[in-house]
Amino acid sequence: MKLMVVGHPFLLAYNQQKYVVMKRLDRDLRLRLIVPTRWRERFEPTDYQVHPELSAEEVVPLKPRAGKSLMTYLYDPRLLVKCLREFQPDVIHLDPGEPQALMTVETIMLQRIYAPSAAVTLWTVDNLLRPRGFPLGVLKKRLRAYSLPRTDAVLCCNRRAAELLKEEGRFNGICEVLPQYGLDTTEHQPGKEPELRAQLGLGESLVIGHVGQMVERKGLRLLFEALGNLLHYPWKLLLVGSGPLDQEIREQWMAKLPGRIVLVPAVPYEQVNRYLRCVDIFVLASQSVPYWQEQFGLALAQAMMLGIPCIGSTSGSIPEVLGPGGLLFEEGRSADLQKRLNALLDSAEMRKELGDQARRFALQHYTREGIAARYMDAFEKVRCNHTGERDEKKETLELESLARKI
Q1: Is the Cβ–Cβ distance between 332 and 271 less than 8 Å?
Q2: Per-residue pLDDT tens for 90-104?
Q3: Cis peptide before 135 (omega within 30 of 0)
Q4: How many CA atoms lie within 13 Å of 309's alpha carbon, on the beta-carbon side?
Q5: Euclidean distance between CA atoms 99 and 83, whole angstroms
Q6: What is the pLDDT of residues 139-163, one digit of tens each?
Q7: Is the model's pTM score more than 0.85?
Q8: Are 239 and 262 in contact (CB under 8 A)?
Q9: What SS3 class is residue 308?
Q10: What per-residue string of b and e applies to 45-77 under the rule 16 or more CB within 10 Å gives b?
Q11: Torsion angle, CA of 316/318/320/323, rounded to 10 degrees?
């Protein structure tokens, strides 16, 4: 199979590992990753990289043009046409590939002219499909009306995204729910990081952790409020990430909770597991807002794989990601979160039991090899269906031509 992937996350070598594993699963897989030359990752401009197990030919950097957000950026069409013409993929996968994104529309338009035999698949996280006012609402509908009927499969980050796609009624192809990435089980072995704990000043405290963007919608203020009522326990809060709330945390919450909060700026993806191994309880307290609700929560899956007991809100896809491997609380309700924290802070036995359940669930659902195999199955199914439909159309045209001659 010749697979072309178009998506900005794969300018990072760490994220390219998904396709490295696919190549191990299928030695005949030929790959092209079309990535931006540069992109803002975790608030920092990042140049494209090439994984050691991929060749320079397999990672093709193109300078993004027009807008710089997921929905508005484009590639130079001449360069994208060159890639399509030379590679002639069997499957083109847009990841992420929201149907209304300009990059999605651009790629599909050019595919139909320069690689017409290719099947097209999209990966979407949209679990709100929120309406827009005029004129953006009209534009969004028209772009989706163009992209979806010309797509062979949509792979959805969560069940709600799949439900909304079905309700919208514009797409009748293959639809599956698949996380964007899987996790390396060798990187995510349960254990402790005593040296790092000591460097961070965590000592013998019970460490509650959060990894992700320091933004309001992640429910951090709610977490601070709940923990403020549990000062009789010897906990410390480890926050790993960066964002608009950094200053508020340093100036306001560290003063209200002196000696309790350790804030570490965002770290590379490959180091996240080390910081999580310093954590005794992981919390994802996300709160839905009109324009967003939790779409997956990769750090939550990582914590589960490491055997850490987890607490999550009911926002978006968190309940399905947690499964039986964690405790849920009603989003936005500080008292509910406090109750769950109290239970885990109070019982080492409960922490151990819940952590074991979390790891078992993660090993069943979130391993890199398992996710890669599911993607390969989806791509192969799409390729076979697309080839069959193309052959059927060709046969129909030949029969019609023969009938006219007779």
Answers
A1: no
A2: 999 999 999 999 999
A3: yes
A4: 20
A5: 21
A6: 999 999 999 999 999 999 999 999 9
A7: yes
A8: yes
A9: coil
A10: eeebbbbeebeeebbbbbebeeeeebeebbbee
A11: -160
